[in-house]
Amino acid sequence: MGTILKFPDQNEPEHMTAKAQEVALDRLLVDRFKSGDNSAFDQLVTRYWDRIYAMTNQLLRNQQDAEEVTQDAFIRAHRGLVNFRGDSAFSTWLYQIATNLARNRYWYWWRRKRDKSVSFDAPLGDENNSTLADLIPAEQETPEDATVTQEFVGRVAECMEELNEKHREILILRNVQNLAYEEIAEILGISVGTVKSRIARARESLREKLGEEFQP
């Protein structure tokens, strides 16, 4: 894992500035909605629909279920936004609603077989370029010219589906949705320390399920 550079406060990384701007705009839209401007909520839907759908689709592995959960999440957000106190970011609150709804649909995911081809090096989500390789980093460097066979790709996908609910969920939030530890902690209602340890256990569980073929 590479070294993470720490910039001085007066020259923060670009993604930190973008996040602060996003939170500020969300707060403005929430305030407008509470003041009676219904179009403000439409803007929130536009801003977050694709991200919420991408997350629920990764969790449920079914487009119809993901669409229904996404719709339900925004319906519930619309109903509850008047009482939203802003103790957390709007995005965190919305992710929490969607995650809880998706949990109630997990049994669909467990029972259905997936015909979709999974690429080990293809992006897992629409929001970033994380791949299966990012989820299960090897203990040693893989030769640049190494190729991953379709058989192994299928094996990785199968093992991802075999992870328990908490492990699969937290890997998706961290590696696919690229959320910070603190935001995941708020969404799941657990401590940051628990988030970190659960991610470590989830990755180790995935390695174990892959077996000897993945051992360095």
TrEMBL record:
Keyword Transcription regulation annotated: yes
InterPro entries, alphabetized: RNA_pol_sigma-70-like, RNA_pol_sigma-70_dom, RNA_pol_sigma70_r2, RNA_pol_sigma70_r4_t2, RNA_pol_sigma_r2, RNA_pol_sigma_r3/r4-like, WH-like_DNA-bd_sf
Keyword line: Sigma factor, Transcription, Transcription regulation
Keyword tRNA processing: no
Gene Ontology biological process terms from the UniProt entry: DNA-templated transcription initiation
GO molecular function, one term: sigma factor activity
Domain RNA polymerase sigma factor 70 region 4 type, first and last residues per copy: 155-206
Occurrences of domain RNA polymerase sigma-70 region (ranges): 44-106
Pfam families the UniProt entry points to: Sigma70_r2 (PF04542), Sigma70_r4_2 (PF08281)
Family statement drawn from the similarity comment of this UniProt entry: Belongs to the sigma-70 factor family. ECF subfamily.
Protein name in the entry: ECF RNA polymerase sigma factor SigW
Species of provenance: Lacunisphaera limnophila
